[in-house]
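In this section we walk through a basic example: taking a raw amino acid sequence and producing a predicted 3D structure, encoded as discrete structure tokens. The instruction is simple. Fold the sequence below.
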Amino acid sequence: MLKLIVVSALLLISIMTTAPTKKPVSDGFCKICKKVIDEFITGDDFIKNDEKITDAICAKFLTGPMVQVCAAGIIGEIDFIRDTYNDDPNAICVAIGCPSKGH
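The resulting token sequence is shown next.
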């Protein structure tokens, strides 16, 4: 489940910080979107390990102090998304391109 959360977090960041497209996410993801986003928002796995997770992601691409800069940026984007949509999984799913019903 932790890998799914990490992938979902990266998907959210990339989608929410780029220009919208007609269908940015697959129908398959939309079917599980609410569950994934809910886990992302409230799940202890991500909340307790957000620094470790983001450090590990950033360390794949960067070195030295830039790892922490990258990780802080990801956490900041995640917090921005959560605040903007009031921690509402339905609103986040709709914002990333899923239909308003069916997730």
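Looking at the output, two observations stand out. Residues 2-17+27-95 form one domain. The mean pLDDT is 77. In the next section we compare this with other chains.
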